[in-house]
Amino acid sequence: MLSKVDEQIAEILGIRGVNVQSPKLGHEGLSGPVWGLDAACLPTIEEGPEAHATSGRPPGRPQLLLRQGRETRHKRSTGLTADPKTSMDLPGSNSGRAYGAKRITVNVATNAAPSDKVILMPDSHFYEPRLGHRLPHDPFKAIVAPRPIGWVSTLDSRGRVNLAPYSFFNAFCDTPPIVGFSSSGRKDSQRNVEATGEFVANLATIRHAAQMNLTSADVSPGVDEMALAGLTAAPCRVVKPPRVADAPAALECKVLTVLPLKDLEGRPTPNTLILGQVVGVHIDPAYLKDGLFHLPTVRPIARCGYRGDYAEVTSLFEMLRPVGPVEGASGGGGG
Predict the structure, then answer these.
(1) What is the pTM of this model?
(2) How far apart (Å, rounded) are the C-alpha atoms in residues 68 and 235?
(3) Mean pLDDT of 16-26
């Protein structure tokens, strides 16, 4: 918790969009408290009436400014008196890529009026992925979340079983049903579907979480991850790879395309998108309620942002799409 004085300083500074930690003593030779800003990786800020973040050039060393009325000035030119007892230690950088490589200290003026604010960061943390995210960890997979897990079973050319989870997995079409997963690097699953043209997407649930995680282990080609995780294999009807016997649902698929992904410049990425048409569906009747596949009973798990983050579906809410024309709408709509 911040003290009352700390809260007043925060109000004077106009701190927003950052996590302010409790003050600490003795940092870098300062005798007074230093405010450590957790992950306050700042964009470059330029002078101007509103002191907005610069977006037209690569980010460099942050320029922290004080705002006085309508005029924005550099801290050193304001003439305000700095007090080392109210200093702020901020992460900075001296190049477009070395974010957080150095730290800079900015003194808070004791005679600053409440309207004089240090602009720390814009309301939106914007970054161009090619220049780096300026955060402790890449947030992309936390933003695109939760993601369903494709627990993919395949056979190699010698008939050996492989089972592996993929968090870059989803449905792409419903008529006909098409699902796909993306492999980062040419792993066993990709090699197998290229050789046989078939795979099975098994539904992973909270009951299977530990076994699903075990099948993600880096093992030698030819090792049966289904047996390694203590899972029972069940035969499929249309394709040759087996399915996980006690999975609430499984989709038998025949490969439509294996597409190496490229970036805007046409350079290859490590990932390959594999799309398959669903040619057979298995559903455990225990999870059908009034003829509907009841997800709160199934309790599927999904991948979230960082190293070991997962979500579990335990409840649903219903919201139906509007019927008929909506005033002011210009068309469009989701899938």
Answers:
(1) 0.66
(2) 73
(3) 34
